[in-house]
């Protein structure tokens, strides 16, 4: 049984469940929630790449998410460009802005970096909120078009949008997996573990930190563009710092610095939030203490906790000598 439940089979089972879910449950509300979960998970993966694997906590991620969303919205609504061209340009624009910001932000370290990016995120929010001639300010940007058909395939129904988001989500997970297990990913981890040691080994920490920062903004911008194309209405609130802290919560709960953590944390909290809606604002009385306990007893989140105990179990299993192998002396 344990051989059947290896990592590869579990992943295939989860993908199969995601593919057949619209046929099992045709409730459009649940499709909407799962589609949003895929989008938010992509944003969390970007944050996790920088904070979890490189060791630099960015608090401007909500701002980059908003840049991607407004990038697509402005290019389609005011620029008159097609959806797919705008969808490709939005994360690239976010990445370009992230490159400029990263050149200055990465001159700082640790909590100074976090404070600097927090200020950057709030400035992005103010620009979106106050630049009414461009962003429409508090009125929001309406009329964002739905994804254009690709040949005979249309994306006007909730099921079609669900599958489109699922495909992009799976591609992002695959790309993140390849990055983390590449030489570049190992370089990020080396910087996280000890930047001084990485420098002594000849690693260009400045270049690699900037690369990690730019990649994280790309995935945030991609998630923002997907959000704008799905919701089709955006306002300044998507750039507010609460979005960043929501993404941070998803990452910490699921498991910072793990590949499965963003999925587990995002889906778990979003599903719990929907089931606890009857509590309204009192939901935080439940989430707050649970999050505190999780940080105290399992700093690497749910996935980190499982991996740690699984590793300990395998170690004990290897150290245990079966009785039938013990030779009589």
UniProtKB/TrEMBL annotation:
Pfam family name, one: BPD_transp_2
Highest taxon above the source species: Bacteria
GO molecular function per UniProt: branched-chain amino acid transmembrane transporter activity
Annotated keywords: Cell membrane, Membrane, Transmembrane, Transmembrane helix
Subcellular location: Cell membrane
TM ranges: 32-51, 58-77, 83-105, 112-128, 162-180, 210-235, 247-272, 284-310
Bilayer topology term: Multi-pass membrane protein
Gene Ontology CC entries for this record: plasma membrane
Designated name of the protein: Branched-chain amino acid ABC transporter permease
Organism: Cytobacillus horneckiae
């Amino acid at each position: 049984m344990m051989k059947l439940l290896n990592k590869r089979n579990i992943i295939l089972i989860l993908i199969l469940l995601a593919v057949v879910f619209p046929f099992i449950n045709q409730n459009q509300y649940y499709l909407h929630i799962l589609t949003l979960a895929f989008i938010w998970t992509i944003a969390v993966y970007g944050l996790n790449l920088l904070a979890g694997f490189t060791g630099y906590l960015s608090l401007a991620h909500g701002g980059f998410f908003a840049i991607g969303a407004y990038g697509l919205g402005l290019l389609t609504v005011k620029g008159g460009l097609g959806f797919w061209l705008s969808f490709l340009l939005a994360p690239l624009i976010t990445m370009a802005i992230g490159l400029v910001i990263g050149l200055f932000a990465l001159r700082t370290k640790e909590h100074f970096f976090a404070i600097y990016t927090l200020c950057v995120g709030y400035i992005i929010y103010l620009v979106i909120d106050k630049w009414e001639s461009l962003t429409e300010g508090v009125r929001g940007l309406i009329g964002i078009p739905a994804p254009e058909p690709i040949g005979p395939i249309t994306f006007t129904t909730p099921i079609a949008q669900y599958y489109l988001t699922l495909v992009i989500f799976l591609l992002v997970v695959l790309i993140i997996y390849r990055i983390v297990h590449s030489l570049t990913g190992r370089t990020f981890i080396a910087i996280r573990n000890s930047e001084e040691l990485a420098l002594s080994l000849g690693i260009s920490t400045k270049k690699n930190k900037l690369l990690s920062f730019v990649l994280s903004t790309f995935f945030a911008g991609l998630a923002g563009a997907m959000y704008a194309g799905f919701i089709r209405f955006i306002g300044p609130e998507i750039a507010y710092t609460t979005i960043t802290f929501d993404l941070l919560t998803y990452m910490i709960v699921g498991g910072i610095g793990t590949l499965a953590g963003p999925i587990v944390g995002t889906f778990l909290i979003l599903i719990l939030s929907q089931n606890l809606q009857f509590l309204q604002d009192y939901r935080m009385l439940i989430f707050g203490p649970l999050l505190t306990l999780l940080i105290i007893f399992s700093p690497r989140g749910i996935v980190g906790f499982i991996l740690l105990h699984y590793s300990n179990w395998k170690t004990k299993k290897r150290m245990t000598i079966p009785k039938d192998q013990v030779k009589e002396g």
